[in-house]
Amino acid sequence: MLLLALAAVFAAGLGGCGKKTRPVPPDTVMPAPISDLRYQLDEKGVELSWSYPRATVEGDRLPYRIEKFELLRAVIPAKDYCPDCPIPFGPPIEITAESGDKGKVFYQETLLRPNHRYVYRVRSKAGWFVSSDDSNTVSVVWDTPLLPPVNFRIEEADKTLTLHWQPPAGLLDGTPVSDPIQYQISRSTDDGETFSEMPGKLIETLTYTDRGLRNGKAYLYKVRAIRLHADTVAAGMPSPSLSAVPRDLTPPAPPQTIRVVASASGVKIFWETVAEPDLAGFRIYRRAANSQTPVRIGEVGGAGLSFLDAKPPKGRGLWYYSVTAFDQARPANESTYSMEATYNEE
Question: What are phi and psi for residue 11, nearest 5 degrees?
């Protein structure tokens, strides 16, 4: 491209009109070609992205601002595509470079035609003569998207969320699907403002476990089906977003060796501590001999190992005391009852 521009300037000089033309900038100020053109498919179409140019072909900082981008686009029926043939690009699509473009540039194209291949390149421009070479090429085949997966649900556990779903009913146009289907998970940690795809390969199963999460924090998820048909990759419609909160669901162990001692101030209950890192305290229960259900009579926080029942039941008979441990989860997980200690009111 640069050689053609130089030739044109030289030919104009031979014409002898005497009018000076705008000088052609040397390679040292030409913007380096964009090398990270990428695409992302969804049920609406394709979104292209690339980095805003920052350097010349020599690696120096650009001495001017990029004014616009030219997007080269070719649309080819999938059955007619020839990987070794010249690409029939149409007229460039001009995209104005916004003043706020300091990182990524995005361009979305919708209303794509099913079973057609879309091929893209992009170049940056800073004036009539200042134009980069073409970027890398991206090529994608668009096909009718799948409906969303169904019966999407999330199982909460300690620092873990497990997603479950069922396959979509078919394609958006009602056609059943017999091609292989994989799944893509997206997650949001900012109340659904932005969703990011989970790293790794597409999922072939109907479940996904997200580990290493923070208990008590809300996470939002979407799942979409990806249809694999020959060289076609068709992204399906996403499921509705679903929120879940990982939480500790494992109760601590119950206290051991429960003892009761009668005193002038009441009945004092003692027990041994529980080795749990998130222990929050203990709850004390009392049961009458003719009852199957213990009644909670108090709670001790922290590392307390005793409790005074200042108002024990009056009258003769047997009474049974037990203790449980509970942790710091919200809501708290409570252990099973300890072995009961007997108190005989005489």
Answer: -65, -40
